[in-house]
Structure formats: C-alpha cells, structure tokens
From TrEMBL:
Record lineage: Bacteria, Pseudomonadati, Pseudomonadota, Gammaproteobacteria, Cardiobacteriales
Spans traversing the lipid bilayer: none
UniProt source species: Suttonella indologenes
E.C. number(s) listed in UniProt: 3.6.3.-
Matches recorded under PROSITE patterns: ABC_TRANSPORTER_2 (PS50893)
Gene name tied to this protein: thiQ_2
Keyword line: ATP-binding, Hydrolase, Nucleotide-binding
Gene Ontology CC: one annotated term: plasma membrane
The protein, known as: Thiamine import ATP-binding protein ThiQ
Amino acid sequence: MNKPTVILQYEGNGIHHGPLRITAQTGQIVQIWGASGSGKSTLLSRIWGSRSLGTAHLCIRTHDQQFTPSTMTPAHFAFLRSRLMSYVGQHPTVLPREKLVDWFALVPTKTVLDGLRLLDLSPSLLSRYACDVSGGELQRFMLLHAYFSSPPILLLDEPCTGLDPERSHQVSTLLLQAKAAQKLVIYTSHTSASWVDQSISLDG
C-alpha cells in the first residue's frame, strides 16, 4: 500500500474548536497542537479508532483502495487499522513479562542499535522486561518500535511530554527520519514547531 492519504473532517462534537479538515499523505509530518483540554488526544484517538468519530468523517486512501470506517464493520476496520496505522499514547500499556528485545525480533541488529543510539537508550535495556524500565525509557522504546513497524501511518500522542530539550530534539530527529522513510506522522504537542509540514492549532 503506497502513500495512503488520511483525511479527517471534524465538526464540533463537544471539542472546543470549529470545523477542522486535515489532508495529509505519506512523507509528511502533521502536528496538532494546543493547550490541555483543547481536544488533541481526542482527535488523535478518533483517527486511530479507539473513540467514536461522532459527526466527524475519516477516509483512508491507498493507491488502489479507499476506506471509511462508517461503511465498514468494526472487525474490518480493526484489521485495516493494524495494517495501516501504529499508535503510541501518553500512557502506554505493555504485557508485564514481555522483553523489549522481542519487540525488534524482525529488525536488523545494526538498525536497532542505531535507533537506540539516536534516542540515548542503552542496548543493555533490551534484555529487560518492558515493565522494568522507567516511564521515559518505555516511551522512547515505544516510539522506536512504532518507527520500525510496517504500518505507514504513525499516530503519536505528545511524544515529547516529560522529555528534556535534548531528548525532545532526539525524538524530533526520529520523526524526520520517519518522514524520509515515507511514513505519515501525525503527532500532538502543547507548542507549535517550524519543522513540520502542517501545524494545526486547536486553541481557537
């Protein structure tokens, strides 16, 4: 599936902003930013499918197909979602006895090590269980796992929250690498950025 386009049309439905239209495609970074309570996470979870779209409309196009959740069964959309999208929330949940090394079983070792180096993560952490690393380390491991996964669309809810400026810059570099790898990155933040392709404010 090449260059899927995500289209979201959102019209109110309880969030504090008016009609909103997002059109984006692979090879782009879209930032959705605003203050706490502005609806960033809600919007992202509607794209992901964990929350009802309400009156919003979502369409995902690939080079040869078009998908709209409103015309699909929940099971069909869940299958589609697993093929096209990866999602990393603010509070990731993991299996308690799942080792981090297992997340990267299909990724070449050098590629994994390069990713760990970029995000300032020690390779020794790979032998630990996911529940035995710090919250910040787990957050960065989740981002790296999403980056290496096959779905072309990455949905990231405040990926830099709680990170210092240096590590925030490392995450930004990873997002730019995802863009160069022809992934579509849609992420939320409290502040705007100048290096993204689209910056959408929900602050009014």
